[in-house]
Design goal:
By secondary structure, this protein is of the alpha/beta class. It is built from 13 helices and nine strands. A five-stranded mixed sheet has the order 1-2-3-4-7, sandwiched between helices.
Length: 354
């Protein structure tokens, strides 16, 4: 502290003798000989950084006392040095990432019990759902327009279960971080299998995947109760099940209770049925996850529709199918035609005949 006070006193004395207003200014690119005045300026300018280099609370307090006595640019400079001291004081060097995958596995909570395992798979499924629906590099397009474009009939392959199973298994395996195994089972003699199997120790979690095409609400309810719960979740170590429904394109379903339901309504019906099954068998952990992989709306189409609604129906058209509502600025095709001697009447769209 005595050394810091001595530097502070030296600074206060030097600034009164070597005033900044009288500093020697050297033109850039011009050679000059360093004199006594230059050395004095360097001494003055080095004192405050010398105090801050102590990086201690005492140095901070000494600088704060000098700042209160200063005004203008010197006060701002001292405040800047104080800020840098606090930044350096709070700085923590990052840990070198020599083996990041191992770090992720070690950092993840262990999956040891039934509930921990079920919640881990559920959380990872929700993470995969989010990535498919909103991720910047989502693969949803492969299960909507791009894949459907070459499918000839509704019964030929619109479901695409096997393709989506591979995607879901891969993404879920990545999300698991090695906490549990994710596999696709071979087809059983009865031509049935778990779509995706998650396993740790003797505990198993079944992921049953259903696409939105060719399935009715009754089909979903039967598959949930008879296939997932009634077939795959019978063993004592297989009481965890997830019923995943993937929306390929926007549609509605006939509700057995009357009316129609959209995708959100379908998921609500299935969740209610899953809850009934769990009430009947408290040992079950049964969840329904809906993934919206339908093509996203094109903002250009919505903008065009908005403009059309504002402008109203077309009143003028040419032989090439170009139209104009009569509102706003005339389009170029009409302006060019009028310049050749034609009139608006030549392009009027006649009223439909009864």
């Amino acid at each position: 502290m005595d050394g810091l006070k001595a530097l502070s006193a030296l600074y206060e004395w030097v600034v009164t003798v070597v005033r900044e207003s009288e500093d020697t200014v050297h033109e850039d690119g011009q050679a000059y000989e360093v004199g006594a005045r230059d050395n004095a300026q360097r001494l003055r300018d080095s004192l405050l950084p010398a105090i801050s280099s102590a990086k201690s609370q005492a140095a901070y307090e000494v600088l704060d006392a000098l700042r209160r006595k200063s005004t203008g640019a010197p006060a701002k400079y001292i405040r800047h040095l104080q800020f840098q001291m606090r930044e350096e004081e709070a700085y923590v060097a990052p840990v070198a990432q020599h083996n990041y995958p191992k770090f992720e596995r070690d950092f993840a909570p262990p999956v040891t019990g039934f509930t921990e395992f079920a919640q881990a798979v559920h959380n990872d499924l929700l993470a995969v759902k989010r990535d498919i629906e909103h991720g910047e590099f989502s693969l949803r397009r492969f299960f909507s327009r791009v894949v459907m474009a070459h499918i000839k009939t509704d019964t030929e392959g619109l479901a695409l279960e096997e393709d989506f199973q591979a995607l879901l298994g891969s993404e879920l395996n990545h999300a698991s971080g090695g906490r549990y195994g994710v596999t696709l089972e071979p087809i059983l003699p009865e031509a049935t299998r778990r779509d995706v199997l998650c396993q740790v120790g003797q505990m198993r979690a079944t992921v049953e995947l259903k696409m939105s095409e060719r399935w009715t609400v009754a089909d979903y309810l039967v598959s949930l109760a008879a296939q997932l719960k009634g077939q795959y979740m019978q063993a004592s170590g297989s009481k965890i099940g997830f019923f995943v429904v993937v929306l390929q394109r926007h549609r509605k379903w006939d509700n057995p209770a009357g009316g129609e339901v959209d995708f959100a309504g379908l998921i609500s019906l299935l969740e209610a049925e899953a809850l009934k099954l769990q009430v009947a068998d408290p040992a079950l952990y049964l969840r329904v996850v809906g993934i919206d992989a339908a093509p996203q709306a094109d903002f250009r189409e919505s903008v065009a529709a908005t403009k059309a609604a504002i402008n109203g129906p077309a009143k003028y058209a040419n032989e090439h199918g170009k139209t104009w509502s009569g509102k706003g600025r005339r389009p170029k095709w009409l302006t060019d035609a009028l310049a050749t001697g034609k009139t608006l009447a030549d392009f009027e769209i006649g009223l439909p005949t009864a």
